[in-house]
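Deliverable D4.2, example record:
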Amino acid sequence: MKSFTQQGFTLVETLVSITILLIIVTGPLTISMTSAKSTSFASEQVVAFFLAQEGAEIAQKVRDGYLLEDINHANDQWDEFTDETSGDIEDCFSSTGCGLELNTDADGSLKTVIDCVTSTTKCKLYYNNTAERDRYTYSSSGTVEIPYTRKIYLTNISPSEVKVVSEVTWRTGNLRQTQKAEVETHLFNIYEN
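Output generated by the structure prediction step:
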């Protein structure tokens, strides 16, 4: 009689080898997915910071516009800029903040100030990929929705100083917590007598 020897893997050996293979494959995939999420979040943070910086710069442009309107009566213009109860930017002095945006005309004048409570956009930003100057806007027409909201808060610190806080918030991925980037600067009455 001939003896036949069977060669091959047992079921246990096969399951062990599949488990080892899965561990080898899923480790790098997990690292890769984590890296991709971190890169995406870092990119969102950079965009949010630049949007916050832009908000602070727009507030400075508004201040400069007031002061340069009539350089001989700069204190009157400063008083108009810092007026918390009336004027163009009174909403910015409220606890709910405002949205500031510049026109695309040659002088970059201020568009209508957006009240973040009563406006339909609630100070949500949109991306306009056809614009050359105002890529990020509060206007939803002809634009792409993005996850960022920008609010600008002005606070009178002294008769010649205003604190500006530009806050950008967004939600990322499936995180429940809102993310925030904030830029703070101080504007002064540089033409004070």
